[in-house]
Amino acid sequence: MPGTQQGRTGYPQLRFVGLLENGTHVLFGVALGGYQDAEVRLAHQTIAHLKPGMLCLADRGLSGYPLWAAASRTRRAVALAHPQESPTAYA
């Protein structure tokens, strides 16, 4: 378990990455991991849940060629926010 300023926390922590359908707000394609697991690794697990015609928008913390390349192989449109201020779109 992760530590705090007062020592170790008594509550287990986890990371999760999921896909959210913007129109209906349905959460799907969720990947769960421990607090030590990287969000990018979990994001790779969610890619298989993208369906034809979907546009995937990703946070700037998930930008990078390996994730974009994996998502683009699904033939879905992907837009990743650049680590700086402006979003960058890829197709």
Structural class: alpha+beta
Low-confidence stretches: none
Q: How many structural units, i.e. domains?
A: 1
Q: What's the count of strands?
A: 7
Number of contiguous helices? 2
- Strand count, sense and closure of the main sheet? 3 strands, mixed
| Strand content bin | 35-45%
Mean pLDDT comes to 78
Radius of gyration: 15 Å
Measured distance between first and last alpha carbons: 40 Å
Q: What is the percent of helical residues?
A: 10-25%
Strand order of the largest sheet: 5-6-7
Outline: elongated
Order of SSEs, N→C? Answer: EEEEHEHEE
How would you briefly describe this protein structure?
It contains 2 helices and 7 strands, in the order ββββαβαββ. The protein is α+β, with helices and mostly antiparallel strands and 91 residues long. The strands form 3 sheets. It has a 3-stranded mixed beta sheet with strand order 5-6-7, covered by helices on one side. It has a two-stranded antiparallel ribbon with strand order 1-2. Strands 3-4 form a two-stranded antiparallel ribbon.
Walkthrough of the structure:
This is Transposase. With 91 residues, this protein is of the alpha+beta class. It has one domain (12-90). It is 18% helix and 35% strand. Strands 5-6-7 form a three-stranded mixed β-sheet, with helices on one face. The protein has a two-stranded antiparallel sheet with strand order 1-2. A two-stranded antiparallel ribbon has the order 3-4.
What are its keywords?
single chain; 91 residues; three-stranded mixed beta sheet; two-stranded antiparallel ribbon; 18% helix; 35% strand; elongated
